[in-house]
Amino acid sequence: MLKMCSYGHCLNFSSSRGAHMSQFEIGVNTAMFDGLDNDVAFSTIQKAGFRYVELAYNQGYVGDMPPELFSAENARHISGLLEKYQLKTRSFGATMNMGAVDAVAQFTRRIHFAHLIGAKWINICVGRQQDRQQIITNLKQLAPIAADNGCVICLENGGDPNYDVFSLADDGAALLDAVDHPAVSVNVDAGNIVSLCPDVDPIEQAIAMLPYAQHCHLKDLEVIDGEVHFTPIGYGQLNYVPMIGLLEAKNIPCSLEIPLRMHRQRDSYPLRGDAPIDPARSLEVLIQSRRTLEKWLG
């Protein structure tokens, strides 16, 4: 059964399989509100009919990442906004270079912040292939810290060469084997495969990641003159229909990640626009995406 949602209410899909009830919940990543106050972002997400928020604190994608973002004070601010708009959070976008010298200290702050706001899954593109061994070493140190804080570090397949240590399904499986800790899993992103590995079937690869994934980003896109531009779900070139049912069956939480302010250039690197996107446009895109998902799951 699909629980249909009217404007301003939660998007919550539930299905019955005999005596088993599973919930397929979809949230919204705040990357589409890059440059705007979180009050505007949360208000728009609530109006569009969603209930879950994934903060996008992604290094290199949404502006500066000052240490204050990960403070207890900001956690209290975010928690207040969640309460104000009757929203919840359970995942947190925290992409950064896990091969950096101070990566363990940097990411430990992110883990503590995720714990304070109630986010279990921390989604992160981790770095470059050339830093693979250091990335693994750092993840081994961070995994117990994540576990102690009730969090899971979800390694996300990257969308540009800065994050090519995990490009395809086999890369992710190999990283999980190397780290070997239950607090490290995978966040699947089919859209990232389009830019970093354009000759591969992105949905096929994304489905191959699902057996060892705990989270998923849903984004749609069009490739125009070799550049990737993001669209509402169902309005681009990715056919998620074969994948959506598997996500629902596995009860894998998802967030719509539609970074409208940026596009990917021919070399796959992101380019941010000069100004934030009008929240009215973001609201329209979210409602269009919600209606597509309702149709697919109806």
UniProtKB/TrEMBL annotation:
Keyword tags: Isomerase
Database matches in InterPro entries: IolE/XylAMocC-like, Xyl_isomerase-like_sf, Xyl_isomerase-like_TIM-brl
Molecular functions (GO terms): isomerase activity
Organism: Candidatus Pantoea formicae
Protein name: Sugar phosphate isomerase/epimerase
Gene3D superfamilies, alphabetized: Divalent-metal-dependent TIM barrel enzymes
A Pfam family: AP_endonuc_2
Residues of the Xylose isomerase-like TIM barrel domain: 44-259
